[in-house]
Design brief:
- This protein is an alpha/beta fold.
- The protein has 2 domains: 226 residues, P-loop containing nucleotide triphosphate hydrolases (Rossmann fold, 3-Layer(aba) Sandwich); 67 residues, YebC, transcriptional regulation domain (Alpha-Beta Plaits, 2-Layer Sandwich).
- Strands 6-7-8-3-9-10 form a 6-stranded mixed sheet, with helices on both faces. Strands 2-1-4-5 form a 4-stranded antiparallel sheet.
- A hairpin with a 2-residue loop joins strand 9 and strand 10.
- Helix 3 runs parallel beside helix 5, helix 4 packs antiparallel against helix 5 and helix 5 packs parallel to helix 6.
- The longest helix has 18 residues.
- The radius of gyration is 24 Å and the shape is elongated.
- The chain binds adenosine-5'-triphosphate (ATP).
- This is ABC transporter.
- It comes from Natrinema saccharevitans.
- Belongs to the ABC transporter superfamily.
- One of its GO terms (molecular function) is ATP hydrolysis activity.
């Protein structure tokens, strides 16, 4: 796992724009009111064109504030946001031409118009002649598997279909940066899988840049290449979803050993969250433990020092949800370790930026 270094972001000035950056966020700070809370504390990140990035964090972490600043909906106290060559604060109108998407609870289309009429409207809004765009609109509807709904008024569509039409409308007006707030909220499993599929195609085929904010880890894990995890106004991790999952891989093992383990039971419970102890065979024991990938040899040593040999071992996988909880629950400890430039993982596999 040589590539499993989580890029932890430290607070500090950053001014350069990465070469391949499409959305560039620099030293973004937002304080609500003169004495109010610092909702975001000088954060930095880049979104490359044609990538899908998830933004995660517990309630109050600063996600909405960050996104509203990026979309030019609120003015940050400090910092800059660029979309392509456009400074969002200086020229929000031009920036808006690039942006499409959904805010949870907001109506993003005209519910009394048909799907086709909505596409025409949004195409016209971007200065396109809807008649010339007919083929493009058909292609979009086909891509999103809603061709049969072209003449249906939006208010009669299901929630999942409305989500798809919103995305199609954004593309009809040539938006190349989509922000999606809780895109799978309220969708049944089938619609959720379909929407995830549509989002993946969007990134691959249309080279669209997508930022997804969601508490649904499945959509982030399935659709996004990368995840930014926020807590208390700061970015506490920013890396590929694969790296995040691998680095924090904590595996649950069910182990049987060839003898009694009462002498080391307290150690197993304390260090490895062990439970489910029960006799196995004539003199062995079975139990379950949770072991991070860098702790595995500590477990083996503990068993060996107690003269125990492993007879069988079975595993269960980690997912992004566990990574998220592990990071946000321990972010204060992790931050202080980062600031003193110590390796958080004792294996030393993590690097700092
Ligand atoms: N208009 C406002 N006035 C004052 N404080 C605000 C305002 N909006 C947000 N805050 C505060 O800023 C902090 C970050 O809020 P924000 O809404 O950005 O978090 P979030 O990560 O989007 O949370 P959630 O997941 O609950 O939507 C919170 O402490 C919140 O109370």
């Amino acid at each position: 796992m040589a590539n499993s270094a989580v890029k932890i972001h430290k607070r500090g000035e950053k001014t350069d724009q990465a070469e391949d950056s499409f959305v560039t966020v620099r030293n973004l700070l937002k304080q609500y009111g003169d004495e109010g809370v610092e909702a975001i504390k000088g954060i930095n990140f880049d979104l490359e064109r044609g990538t899908a990035v998830g933004i995660l964090g517990p309630n109050g972490a600063g996600k909405t504030t960050t996104i509203k600043c990026i979309l030019g909906l609120i003015v940050p106290t400090e910092g800059t946001v660029r979309i392509g060559d456009i400074d969002v604060l200086e020229d929000p109108k031009t920036a808006y031409q690039h942006i499409g998407g959904t805010f949870e609870g907001a109506r993003n289309m005209y519910w009394r118009l048909t799907v086709e009429e909505n596409l025409d409207f949004f195409a016209a809004l971007a200065g396109n002649n809807p008649r010339e765009r007919q083929a493009r609109h058909e292609e979009l509807l086909e891509q999103f598997d809603i061709s049969d709904k072209a003449d249906t008024v939006v208010r009669e569509l299901s929630r999942g279909q409305k989500q798809k039409v919103t995305l199609a409308c954004a593309l009809a007006r040539n938006a190349d940066f989509l922000f999606l707030d809780e895109p799978t909220l309220g969708l049944d499993i089938e619609s959720k899988l379909e929407l995830q599929d549509v989002l993946k195609k969007l990134v691959e085929r249309e080279n669209t840049t997508v930022l997804v904010s969601s508490h649904d880890m499945d959509v982030i894990e399935e659709v996004c290449d990368r995840a930014i995890i926020m807590n208390d106004g700061e970015i506490i991790a920013d890396d590929t979803v694969d790296n995040l999952v691998h680095l924090f891989e904590k595996t649950r093992y069910e182990i049987t050993v060839d003898g009694e383990c009462s002498d080391i039971r307290t150690d197993l419970e304390g260090k490895f969250d062990a439970d489910g102890f029960k006799p196995h065979g004539s003199k062995g024991m079975q139990f379950r433990v949770t072991v991070a990938s860098n702790e595995f040899y500590d477990l083996i040593d503990l068993l060996r020092n107690a003269d125990l040999s492993i007879e069988t071992i079975e595993t269960v996988d980690t997912n992004l949800e566990e990574v998220f909880l592990s990071l946000t629950e321990n972010s204060d400890d992790r931050r202080s370790a980062t600031e003193t430039d110590q390796s958080i993982a004792s294996s030393g596999r993590r690097s700092h930026e």
